[in-house]
Amino acid sequence: MQNKYFTTGEFAKLCHIEKHVLFHYDEIGLFSPAITGDNGYRYYSCYQYDTFAVIRAMQSIGMSLKDIKVYLDQRNPELFLKLIDEKNKDIDEEIKRLKDIKQMIKRLKDYTKEAMDSGEDICLKSLPAARLLLSENMENKTNDDLAIFMDAYMRFCGSHHAVSPEFVGNMITVENLQKENYLNYSYLYMPTDTRNKSADFARKQGIYLYACHHGYYDTIHQTYKKMLKYAEDNKILLGKFAYEEYLLADVAQKDMTGYVTKILIETREDVGNAQYNPK
């Protein structure tokens, strides 16, 4: 017996685990000792190491002990290939999830740096095209009605897994800004790299009027008024939409007076003629 079998302690040491793991596996019928002596001592065969290795490998790819037990009881090559295909899909999904998290972290970092570098100046900027994922049209539905807006906001965040306000912007028409309807939003939006036929919108490449609003969102109309005055004074023709993006909000700034909201307003300026900040 000494040449072919190991005690529970010896086998646990061989497998680099604690003895209680083997006791638990035995209790649930997943992995039992080859021999249990009259004295109650448990002995594991050296050949059981391979089975134990399979269990640990299955755990490493996310299988539950319950599913591993079913697999061990029924395993054959066809079932193994089916399992591998399923786990490949799971791994692909996990890779995508991790890439999304990495992209989220990069965006938060970029937004925070931009907020920290921002000043009070208004200027023109040349920006590339951007693809946006839009909410349903909210114009004339949410004006001055916070409850309706928050319901739309939460549904949009939930359906697109937005975990932070920095990932959701507001679109409002220039016409509403000129009428001082600062809360009559047209859409919520999120930047996206994926085409979506039902809610896809391409923010055009071009010259945008750029400013950052510092402080409470309730006072953002003050910055809009300055931007509209700047456009009027400099004879800048404005386009259809303005875009609000939260560069610095609750996730990184405790004091609301330190919040920073970026505002972009479409213009009809020509890239070759406009005087703009190329940053």
UniProtKB/TrEMBL annotation:
Classification via InterPro entries: DNA-bd_dom_put_sf, MerR-type_HTH_dom, MerR_fam, Reg_factor_effector_dom_sf
Keywords: Coiled coil, DNA-binding
Annotated ranges, domain HTH merR-type: 5-74
Superkingdom of origin organism: Bacteria
Single Gene Ontology MF annotation: DNA-binding transcription factor activity
Pfam family name, one: MerR_1
Coiled coil regions, renumbered to chain: 81-111
Keyword Metal-binding found: no
Name the record gives this protein: DNA-binding transcriptional MerR regulator
Organism encoding this protein: Murimonas intestini
